[in-house]
Amino acid sequence: xxxxxxxxxxxxxxxxxxxxxxxxxxxxxxxxxxxxxxxxxxxxxxxxxxxxxxxxxxxxxxxxxxxxxxxxxxxxxxxxxxxxxxxxxxxxxxxxxxxxxxxxxxxxxxxxxxxxxxxxxxx
Amino acid sequence: xxxxxxxxxxxxxxxxxxxxxxxxxxxxxxxxxxxxxxxxxxxxxxxxxxxxxxxxxxxxxxxxxxxxxxxxxxxxxxxxxxxxxxxxxxxxxxxxxxxxxxxxxxxxxxxxxxxxxxxxxxx
Lengths: 123, 123
Known about the structure:
Two copies of one chain form a homodimer. By secondary structure, the first copy, chain A, is mainly β.
């Protein structure tokens, strides 16, 4: 059946969590939020677009940094309340210039940094 | 520094999204929620434990189904408001008996089922 973004189950702020995964490596890059319009814009433009809760505006990933996410495929989960976007990520996904936002591992009760910032701009 | 689950940034319900990823294949299996106690229990027990919003109780993944998630590593994101758990998943992660909850892809504007339920119980 045809997909209608309005049929996803949004929270009381009208948002669903969106997980971005590198389509080639499988690495989980980041998690952000989408409303129905962000889902629609992402599908129509092929550029992953989130809703910024802090700035209350659409956030076309990489629009200012150049670290864009080209949509390879969007998937939805069984409960229709979470979105997975498989992407081609240009440069780092994280604002700290690391490839992934999940660069802190918990090992033996300690926080361990397992990823360094990318040097220069590979965007 | 030593990790304290209370230092994560929980939402107004006291929860953070937790993404479960197959540690071996990289497949994203599911997304659920954890409160600080669920984070602590997961780290202490090595069994991934969520907080069920619908039932308002701890949810030791696989406790009834046998489809347990053995924790390989927990990671936190740059904003400390999302958790990634790398797991060894026994059998299907999804309650529909599919390996992953993200079995519906959006292709050419249509919803396409890309994964079948696992036959029998491989738990």
